[in-house]
Amino acid sequence: MPPLTPPADTAAAVTPSTSNGFTPLRVKRVVRETADAVSLVLDVPDGERGRFAYRAGQFVTLRVCIDGEEHQRCYSMSSCPALEPDLQITVKRDRGGLVSNWLNDTAEVGSEYTAAPPEGRFVLTAGEREVVAFAGGSGITPVFSLLRSALSATARRTGLYYANRDRDSVIFGESLSQLVAQHADRFTLHQHLDAADGVVTARHVADFMAGRGEAEVYVCGPTPFMDTVEAALLDLGVPEERIHLERFTPVAAPAPETNGAAVTEEVTIELGRTTVTQPYRAGNTLLQTARLAGLKAPSSCETGSCGTCMAQVTEGSARMLNNDALDDDEVAEGWVVTCQALPTSPTVRVVYE
Ligand SMILES: Cc1cc2nc3c(=O)[nH]c(=O)nc-3n(C[C@H](O)[C@H](O)[C@H](O)COP(=O)(O)OP(=O)(O)OC[C@H]3O[C@@H](n4cnc5c(N)ncnc54)[C@H](O)[C@@H]3O)c2cc1C
Ligand code: FES
């Protein structure tokens, strides 16, 4: 695989190229949102606009090369396709994180990264229901796009519960205030600051949901925030199918000896015209097993959100650590998101479409 974004010190030595659906995109504008977050407006070449068309709430997979090593990360669009021709992502520094800090430190107009076309299922559902979102920190990115889409293209009522550490961490603060002014009749914003209010609790969620029980609810943010909000929504009786989750970090896998997978001996994987039987290593997901078998299995978010890695278990069984992508019918037919699926029978056969 060619390096798609060169390390800063070798920028002139590397020519990015389109490969495996990844396309070089040049940064045409950089917006320093806060000390910890940067928005990058990416120039999509005319010939690629069709492939890079997206729905509010979706993300692109960026591949960068730092110090000679390639890294792949997903970033949601913070732009709104109904309002802006350009594609914008917003990257918040993850403390100790590699790519987010590198992008914040080095991105400039003219920088070139390669990206795979947009995907993801964290998108507006059809219908008239109110749209309520709970966003924490960088989780505002897809939510900002979703809400502006709902406000510009529909007559739906909308509400945003937006949690941040403190005032300095708030991304899009000014734009959100403008949205409130423009749509005072149908957009409610509640800003929660941990520094003043403590961490978000079930009580905060219940208060914001009062009178909004029929809404479609979108949740995106750090894992503990998402866990609190999801549990509170379920306790309030919001049906699972109306709770839409976008996870930025994978659910932690249990220790192999407690995950029920130790009994598995081998996994047979069909991908395209290739069929491989691979001895199973306890604790590995089906996606990891496919990679160990030398297969280039499709993947993107690796959190169970996008469905890119889905495959059907046609023999044996598997369980998912997390599934925010497949509906009940698909699961009943044996489909799994392989990035989250652990085999649970002595042998398993998995077929990628
Ligand atoms: C669908 C999707 C959409 C996303 N959208 C956005 C978005 O819009 N904006 C955004 O900012 N992010 C988004 N993310 C998250 C993003 O993809 C990255 O995960 C994030 O930027 C962190 O990447 P990183 O390389 O900086 O951190 P990494 O280097 O991957 O590290 C992640 C964390 O692990 C810790 N860590 C790393 N190595 C170790 C180790 N050896 N031991 C212990 N801890 C370690 C780091 O300290 C850090 O906290 C999205 C993710 C997904 C899946
Ligand atoms: S890679 Fe996105 S659900 Fe598995």
UniProtKB/TrEMBL annotation:
Superkingdom of the source species: Bacteria
Protein name: Oxidoreductase, FAD-binding
InterPro entries: 2Fe-2S_ferredoxin-like_sf, 2Fe-2S_ferredoxin-type, 2Fe2S_fd_BS, Beta-grasp_dom_sf, Cbr1-like_FAD-bd_dom, FAD-bd_FR_type, FNR_nucleotide-bd, MRET
PANTHER family linked to this entry: 1,2-PHENYLACETYL-COA EPOXIDASE, SUBUNIT E, NADH OXIDOREDUCTASE HCR
Gene Ontology terms for molecular function: 2 iron, 2 sulfur cluster binding; flavin adenine dinucleotide binding; metal ion binding; oxidoreductase activity
EC number(s) given by UniProt: 1.17.1.-
Domain 2Fe-2S ferredoxin-type: 265-353
Keywords: 2Fe-2S, FAD, Flavoprotein, Iron, Iron-sulfur, Metal-binding, Oxidoreductase
Domain FAD-binding FR-type, first and last residues per copy: 20-125
Keyword Lipid biosynthesis listed: no
Gene that this polypeptide is encoded by: hmp_3
Coiled-coil ranges from the UniProt annotation: none
Cofactor requirement: FAD
Protein's organism: Mycolicibacterium chitae (Mycobacterium chitae)
